[in-house]
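=== RUN LOG ===
request id: a7f3
mode: sequence -> structure
chains: 1
length: 524
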Amino acid sequence: MRYRKGGVEGEEGRSNVAIAASIRTSKWLIPCLVTFRVVSALFLSDTYFVPDEYWQSLEVAHKLAFGYGHLTWEWTEGIRGYFHPLLFAALYKLLDAAGLDSTLAISVAPRVLQGLLAAWSDFHMVAMAERYFPPGAAGWTLAVYLSTWTNIYCMCRTLSNSLETVFTVVALRHWHWPWTTRIDIAAVRRGFIYAAIACLVRPTAAMLWLPLSAYLLVSCRTRVWRILLYCVTPVAVLSLITSVLLDSVCYGRLVFVQWSFLQFNFLNDLGAVYGEHPWHWYFTAGVPALLGTWLPVAAIGIHMSDWRHKQLAVVSLVVVLANSFVSHKEFRFLLPLLPPACLYSGYAVHRILSTNQLPKHVVYGALVLAAVPQILASVYLGGVHQSGTTSVMRHLDKHALQLSDSGRLSELKVLFLMPCHSTPLYSHLHRNVSLEFLTCPPLQASETEDEAFFRDPNSWLANRADRGRIPLPSHIVLFDVLQPQIQIWLDEHGYIRNATFFHSHFPDGRVGSSVILYSSRINS
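=== RESULT ===
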């Protein structure tokens, strides 16, 4: 058997191709992927991660579909595109038309839909791995990808990053690579279409696709004009027209959200109001968090690949560097780089096993040690950690149903005394009732409402009537860390503890270990 850097030849190489083909054509692959993602959507994606999975998608979709809800300041400033929430708004409309728009369906169906889209991209992940590396690496690539905690934890959530990653995988599956001699214009066009959709979902996706497109055009010098004429130009023009028309109709005025997004996050770096990190954060914390125990395996795979197959690694490095110039950083912003990283990890495992560089039992043992902590982390984070804020919404929904049955729904008035956007809202209650929370538009006041409240909670509550909010709420939701500070006010105004929900083993600042629901005595 002969080996070469970047590929495997010989009998074992051919057997690996057969194995990969059996994986791709197996009748069990798609059902297993769908089952895995639906289970993840139902049981491992119902905890709180970041506000955007509700407030930049489901809450917007709920207002579009049902006419009531709340839009955050980004949607009045025109820096968010409607392409992503419209997907869930369409789903809500279908549920409504079918008479299936229960609160349970409204809160769960979007995650299931995102899970199905993730399963679709998982299948394309296998095909992408077969085209980029020797087909024998495809099975290991999928195994690494599906055992990564960030994949399990994020991909079924209704984040724009998750949908962006879905279309990134599908686009990479159709992308033309320089070691492919024949240029299939139709396949290249499909790659550009899915890449454009990824950019519609999240404009920052362009940081990945601009260098990849430039490399493609340089490597295809003899066909560059055909690619520009039949692929790049029509797809770019059509996607921009679609974006402008879609967003302008939804906003009710002419907007170009890509420019507004670029101006806010990059040119003016106003995202820093949500927290700043040093320039090296993605290298020292973001990428290690993204990959976890698979990071050294991915590094080995990059080292083992030849210079042509390092293209995705180089482009990924460019994306990380570009993101490093922005003050506000989150590891989920790198989620579209997870598939390429897992691609190199799968190739490393394939090469090590194929070349017998280490005893197989040592390799398999190391793989178990790498995968098990990630799976356990995803189960804990997705099923236990920060679960109180969604649990309290389910409890409120049950109470709302009781009030609705007795014709007293209008009595439900909930005040959330928590850091702003700590809970979902109408997307998890689905009733047009009064839900009041502490707002935090960063550019509209010297001090946001939640900052003013936490600076002096009792003064804020005492002055509440002076701001035109005279009626006391029927229910108050807060974290346990706040309770000692306002207990006297709660007692004076007749509130009693109604329920307590576990939230986190790791309370942090204003976010406590439990969520407490108080109700007035007449509503208890």
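=== NOTES ===
The chain has 22 helices and seven strands.
The longest strand covers residues 495-502.
=== END ===
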